UniProtKB/TrEMBL annotation, chain A:
Organism: Thermohalobaculum xanthum
Superkingdom assignment: Bacteria
GO cellular component labels: ATP-binding cassette (ABC) transporter complex
Homology family: Belongs to the binding-protein-dependent transport system permease family. HisMQ subfamily.
A molecular function GO annotation: transmembrane transporter activity
Name by which UniProt lists this protein: ABC transporter permease subunit
TrEMBL record, chain B:
Solute-binding protein family 3/N-terminal domain location: 33-255
Signal peptide residues on this chain, from the entry's feature table: 1-22
Species of origin: Thermohalobaculum xanthum
This protein's record includes keyword Signal: yes
Protein's name in the database: Amino acid ABC transporter substrate-binding protein
Family matches, as SMART domains: PBPb
Record PANTHER family: AMINO ACID ABC TRANSPORTER PERMEASE, AMINO-ACID ABC TRANSPORTER-BINDING PROTEIN YHDW-RELATED
InterPro entries: Bact_solute-bind_prot3, Solute-binding_3/MltF_N
SUPFAM superfamilies (alphabetical): Periplasmic binding protein-like II
Annotated keywords: Signal, Transport
Transmembrane segments: none
Superkingdom of origin organism: Bacteria
Family the entry assigns: Belongs to the bacterial solute-binding protein 3 family.
Length: 573, 339
């Protein structure tokens, strides 16, 4: 009997591919993959053929041609002689401004409304219900148009401020003007010596943070609580003001004044921007409010009762007990709300706000007729932004979520395992583990690393997309393929290294190594590092770049104290 | 899978575009009506009247094309298009022709793959401002806020004009004429700029048209004309010669009142006979009925009649013929001979 149980020789038959469960799933996956590839190839071929039939070519040459149109809100140097790619960047920056300010405002509105909706005060709770249910159930498009119409029709035209019998007047002692074209605010003017005031402000700010930590440690050691916030705020404000006085008041304000057709001077915030940002943040805020309410209600009532029993007041119960636990429930849906807001900002054109949909996918598309290219670039941009927001929020979520059984062990391979012989065995500890208590907190050299990667990323972005295009420095779309790929790879690795470093994720070490490899690749393909920073030669930047990256990796692997404070990897003694 | 879905949409979009390529005349005859792209609503040029029917200078000329093919000016469907959507609508085959105050430019003729088949209105870009501003020349507009329709040549002319005169301005891009009017009247912009004909048309709808002036500067040449897809010459010929027939009819003194009588039998004027199909086979050469021009003029009138009825001096719009008068009367309207 035992003879027959042995498989005799190679017994693989072709029908085992779909009959034998050992091969079946692999076989099906391969077939599916081949089908998908064939389908993609067919569709791609179809596109190319049909474009050719229309007599259109596919290419990005038009991006280096002059755009020939003007854009009202521009955060970088731009005029009608600038290229289409510059116009696209102007639009991208406008989109980002709306997205970032909108997300911040929406979070503020959402948290306030979400907490207030649970208030014991009947009127406040009902008012918030009306806000949330009213705003959530009306299309955001209509709300944007409503805001724009209100600004257009209800606010006075600049001419109403003119003359003896002016029908409108400026607010706050002639410093703020609200017109139907936009809002004008006073703008600070930085005179000589203002640099030191700014420096003093930041030094004091850092000092305040350190004071806060010291006070916290002291409180944990002795149980004595200091009035931290008043001391911090007072120190920063009074200190900065003293330096301001000593330097002879080097910062003044430039007030807007009616001149010609419009107000001149000051900061001009256009109504199109105001309407879009307000409508988007109020709309998204209503959704966030519901997330916040759900998160708070997800924390068991026993927690509140226990906190009350310990003598905590309702305020502190909310801040110290409920919200930290509620955040775990709130953050995942918050990510998609941020993404929604960012994508909804593409409705900007309705109110004449020139975001990337208005410039690249609007006027540029219309004037050049390059539908596929412009839409492709636009989609790539929105995809990149959405994925970046999602990545950052996911890392933050990793930090605040409950540590599950799997998260402590499920790291897989990491570069650090290669260095076990040098650094000794590493052990992954959970957040909250007693062994890592002394190390917990955002501190250490990792913060310097954050600054290094952030500065590198900003320099690279600035050089690639914002810098003046000259004879010696062609536009990005004219670079050879290798340099274009190197640029994109550098952007990708710098961004992901920065994000993991910021959130103290253990994957930081792997990404830092990958970033070093990409940097070396960029040097190998001759990336023009010499032009990155004015006045610093290429070899210096390359050497500093490699040295800094090596130092960061080396410190993280063999340093005295491991800095990855989330899943602490602690060297076993 | 995301990629394949995206490419699928891409492919689907371009497939329809590819299919709509050739032999538009046959397609139009087969489906029984002409699909015409017009503006979303410019008084005098393309608008819906009280009964919901499209009317206006451009819309009537579109009807002339339908009359030429089917003998029936109602064998037509209109698609309102914005400055942004018009070219895509034409390229994708959503409309058969574009009769929508579109400026004939080199890049549109070549790069956008359109064919402009003629000029039905010679225009130029102008500026309108409220009289109360006290502005008498466009060069005094330094620092002004200007409403423009986005996706038009006016946007580019404006940038060039202000740059050449070294004065600054604040552009407010707007999608449609109606929105621009609303913003202009609310005082959210000081100036509204578009083709001078469009300004006159828009001003005619204001409550107090006299409070607004159109500045004397005309900063560009805007030859407005019908456009068809590139590479379909037969269809382009039909549209071109329909427009030419309207102009020739005015030149030869044919109008909607006398065309039936003139077209019933050959007259002493051979050119008139060739136009009205009582001599030669000119209709067949175009792939149209023999009496196509008679049908056109009978249903819409000649160029002069259309002009006077929709935008002429006696209408609310009140545009003078100016450049658009016949070449024999001091204008530049001129048609190649019918022979």
């Amino acid at each position: 009997m035992s003879d027959t149980a042995q498989p005799s020789g190679p017994s693989f038959r072709i029908d085992m591919l779909w009959n034998d469960s050992r091969y079946r799933s692999t076989f099906i996956q391969i077939v599916a993959l081949v089908l998908v590839i064939l389908a993609v190839m067919y569709l791609f071929q179809n596109v190319v053929e049909n474009l050719a039939a229309l007599g259109k070519t596919f290419g990005f040459d038009f991006m280096t041609q002059p755009a020939s149109y003007d854009i009202n809100q521009r955060l970088i140097e731009y005029n009608s002689r600038s290229t289409h790619s510059t116009a696209a960047v102007v639009g991208i920056l406008n989109t980002l401004v709306v997205a970032i300010v909108g997300c911040v405002l929406a979070t503020i509105f959402g948290v306030l409304a979400g907490v207030a909706r649970l208030s014991k005060n009947w009127i406040i709770a009902r008012l918030m219900t009306v806000y949330i249910e009213g705003v959530r159930n009306v299309p955001v498009l209509i709300q944007i148009l409503l805001f724009a119409a209100i600004f257009d029709e209800a606010l006075p035209a600049p001419s109403a401020f003119r003359g003896e019998d002016a029908t409108a007047s400026m607010w706050l002692g002639d410093s703020v003007a609200a017109t139907n074209r936009g809002f004008y605010f006073p703008m600070p003017v930085w005179l000589e010596g203002s640099f030191w005031v700014v420096v003093a402000f930041f030094v004091l700010l850092v000092g305040a943070v350190w004071f806060g930590r010291w006070a916290k440690e002291r409180q944990q050691a002795t149980g004595e609580a200091l009035p931290v916030l008043p001391i911090q705020a007072g120190g920063v404000i009074i200190g900065t003001f003293l330096v301001f006085l000593v330097m002879g008041m080097p910062i003044t304000l430039d007030f807007p004044a009616l001149k010609g057709f419009n107000f001149q001077g000051g900061i001009y915030v256009r109504n199109s921007y105001m309407a879009l940002t307000l409508a988007l943040s109020i709309y998204t805020g209503a959704f966030i409010a519901e997330n916040v309410r759900a998160g708070i209600q997800a924390v068991s009532k026993g927690q509140t009762e226990a906190a009350f029993a310990l003598g905590l007041r309702p305020n502190r119960t909310m801040n110290l007990v409920i919200l930290p636990q509620a955040l775990r429930v709130i953050i995942p849906p918050l990510i998609s709300q941020y993404l929604n807001l960012t994508k909804n900002s593409s409705l900007a054109l309705l109110v004449g706000y020139m975001d990337v949909t208005g410039t690249l996918m609007g006027i540029t598309l219309n004037q050049t007729g390059k539908e596929f290219e412009t839409l492709f670039l636009g989609m790539a941009f929105y995809l990149a932004v959405s994925l970046s927001v999602a990545a950052i929020m996911n890392l933050y979520n990793e930090q605040v979520k409950l540590v599950e059984r799997t998260s402590a062990v499920g790291m897989g391979f990491s570069v650090i395992d290669l260095f076990s012989s040098v650094s000794g065995k590493w052990e992954v500890l959970k957040k909250g583990d007693a062994k890592m208590q002394p190390l917990y907190g955002i501190r250490g050299l990792l913060n310097l690393f954050v600054i290094f990667y952030a500065v590198s990323l900003l320099l690279l972005l600035d050089y690639t997309f914002l810098a003046e295009i000259t004879e010696t420095r062609p536009s990005y779309f004219d670079w050879p393929g290798g340099k274009q790929i190197a640029t994109l790879l550098m952007l990708l690795t710098l961004f992901s290294t920065l994000a993991t470093c910021l959130f103290k994720n253990p994957r930081f070490i792997d990404l830092a190594v990958f970033d070093l490899l990409v940097f070396i690749f960029a040097v190998a393909v001759g990336w023009p590092f010499g032009q990155l920073v004015e006045g610093v030669s290429g070899p210096v930047i390359v050497l500093v770049g490699i040295a800094a990256r090596l130092a960061i990796i080396g410190y993280t692997i063999v340093g005295e104290r491991p800095n990855l404070t989330f899943f602490h990897r602690v060297r076993r003694a | 899978m995301k990629t394949s879905v995206f490419l699928g949409a891409l492919a689907a979009a371009s497939l329809t575009a590819g299919l709509a390529g050739a032999a538009t005349l046959d397609d139009v005859k087969a489906k029984g009506f002409v699909q015409c792209g017009v503006a979303t609503g410019v008084p005098g040029f393309a608008f819906t009247d009280a009964s919901g029917e499209w009317d206006g200078f451009d819309a009537t000329m579109c009807r002339a094309v339908a009359a030429a093919i089917f003998g029936d000016p109602k064998a037509i469907k209109f698609t309102p298009t914005t400055g942004k959507t018009r070219f895509t609508a034409l390229a994708s085959g959503e409309v058969d022709l574009l009769f929508r105050n579109t400026t004939w430019t080199l890049s549109r003729d070549t790069d956008l793959k359109l064919d402009f088949v003629g000029v039905n209105y010679y225009d130029g870009q102008g500026f309108m401002v409220p009289k109360a501003l006290g502005v008498s020349s466009a060069k005094e507009l330094d620092g002004a806020t200007v409403c423009i329709q986005t996706g038009t040549t006016t946007e580019l002319n404006l940038a060039d004009f202000f740059r050449a005169n070294n004065i600054s301005y604040e552009p407010v891009p707007i999608e449609t004429n109606a929105e621009a009017t609303q913003k202009y009247l609310a005082g959210a912009c000081d100036v509204y700029t578009t083709d001078a004909s469009g300004l006159a048309a828009t001003r005619s709808t204001f409550e107090a048209p006299a409070d607004h002036v159109i500045l004397p500067e005309i900063i560009s040449k805007e030859p407005l004309g019908p456009a068809v897809r590139h590479g379909d010459s037969e269809w382009a010929d039909v549209v071109r010669w329909t427009l030419n027939a309207l102009i020739a009819a005015e030149e030869l003194g044919v109008n909607s009142g006398n065309v039936e009588q003139l077209g019933s039998a050959a007259t002493d004027n051979p050119e008139l006979n060739r136009l009205l199909g009582t001599e030669g086979e000119y209709g067949a050469m175009l792939g149209l009925p023999k009496d196509w021009a008679v049908n056109v003029i009978k249903s819409t009138g000649n160029y002069g009649e259309i002009f006077d009825r929709t935008i002429g001096p006696d209408t609310q719009i009140g545009l003078a013929r100016g450049l658009n008068a016949l070449w024999t009367q001091g204008g530049i309207l001129y048609t190649p001979p019918f022979r």
